[in-house]
Amino acid sequence: METPTPEDWTLELNEPVPTAVPVGAARREAHAAPIAKESRIDDMDIIRGMALFGVLTMNLALGFRVPFFGNPFSMPTGLLERVVFRLELILLSGKAMSLFSILFGAGLAIFLERARARGPGALGLLARRLLFLTGFGLAHALLVWHGDILTSYSLTGLIALFFLQRRVSVVLIAAGGSLVWQALGPLWPAAAALAGREVPGHFQEAVRVYGTASYFDVVAFRAYEIFRLEMPGYIFLVPDELTKMLLGIAIWRSGILRLEVREKHLRALRWVGFAGILYGMGYSLYRWIYFEIYHPPRVPPGMLGRIFSNFQIMALACALGYGALLLLLLRRATWRKSLGIFAPLGRMAFTNYLTQSIVFSTLFYGYGFGLLGKFGYVAMALIGTAFYVLQGFVSTIWLRHFRFGPFEWAWRSLTYGQLQPMRR
């Protein structure tokens, strides 16, 4: 499931502090007012905007083109189809989503830090924000697309709140423990079954329902998938998301996302970039070659073997490598200017993500244009690229006139309990 995150991932750190507020009202609402934004974290927007392309590409290949739950993951036919599919798996699968999760964790730390500077009640405000995100996620999963990740983000984020005020060393130890658990946890096979991947005949039924049924029949089928197949498996899938969010919290607390602090960590960034990408790409290539020539790779024995052969850990390492490489590039003015075109996509990631779900579920499902299963991987890659470019243009033009994307604005207004200023 490749899906991204909302406005905490695109914190508006340059919005002016509201003025002309009655003193009494300011005192009463100090804990629930938007934070003062003194600087814009452009690097986070750029990385998020670039990751959005990978998320969209994988969603189209494995989530909109065919039903996600129970997907037998059949190999494409034809040389070009196989090459495109394998390149997507090697370069993007799991990596883009991991970047979003890391940035989401960093966003939690940023939100709490800035909100605490405004007054008491910051942790409660953040919890409220995550609860509203749960509502968005459930509505998205039930009414639009079953590949939702917002609910998982919000529920895991509530767990991550416990670590937001801990020392960085404690956060890293917790992330390491979560990492080991997801590699060695004996209940993972049960999680796969609970997530619907081992329900006999489910994929065939999903193809029929999503490809031909009415909207209300599709909603009823989604409800079955969410509450009977997916929700019970969340408890086993939490360690994966929690590890990434905790790393995001630790990364922000280390200060490495701040340009002035980054210069002190150049050697570490170079090593993370080199080792993460080498491990991620190398292991992905190994799986490809071994799968094609022999058979699916077996899990090596022992703790280290299971950890280094775990797909989620490989994707996380590669995502950290991508992030480190981009942070190094963004130190240069020429690279910052060139990559800045991705920032509007990142600032409106919540809106862009939900728009993708609305557009492509309508395009592929039976209550819309009924194109489920009609396109191969090459066509989907082209369609995804074209739509991503279109979203880039729309995001850039929109943000010239408005402070937030539509869904970012709605989420923000719900969080603070009052309508936020929209126009610039």
Could you explain the architecture of this structure?
With about 425 residues, the chain is mainly alpha-helical. The protein has one domain (about 5-415). The chain has helices at about 25-30, 40-65, 80-90, 95-120, 120-145, 150-160, 170-185, 190-195, 200-210, 215-230, 235-255, 260, 265-295, 305-310, 310-330, 335-340, 345, 350-365, 375-400, 405-415. The longest helix is centred in the middle third of the chain and has 28 residues, at about 265-295. The protein is globular, with a radius of gyration of 21 Å. The chain starts with about 20 loop residues before the first helix and ends in an 8-residue tail after the last helix. About 45% of the residues are buried. Residues about 1-40 have low confidence and may be disordered.
Which descriptors would you attach to this protein?
424 residues; mainly alpha; 20 helices; 0% strand
Poorly predicted spans:
2-40
| Total number of distinct structural domains | 1
Provide the β-strand percentage band.
Answer: under 5%
State the major sheet: none
Helix-strand pattern: HHHHHHHHHHHHHHHHHHHH
Which secondary-structure class do the elements indicate? mainly alpha
Q: Give me the count of strands.
A: 0
Mean model confidence by pLDDT: 83
- The geometry reads as globular
Number of discrete helical segments: 20
Tell me roughly what share of residues is in helical segments.
55-70%
Radius of gyration: 21 Å
The span between the termini is 35 Å
How do the strands and helices of this protein lay out in sequence?
Elements: H1 23-29, H2 42-64, H3 79-91, H4 95-118, H5 122-143, H6 150-160, H7 168-184, H8 188-194, H9 202-212, H10 215-230, H11 234-254, H12 259-262, H13 266-293, H14 303-308, H15 311-329, H16 333-339, H17 343-347, H18 349-364, H19 377-401, H20 406-416
Helix pairs in contact: 2-3, 2-4, 2-18, 2-19, 3-13, 4-5, 4-11, 4-15, 5-6, 5-20, 6-11, 7-11, 13-15
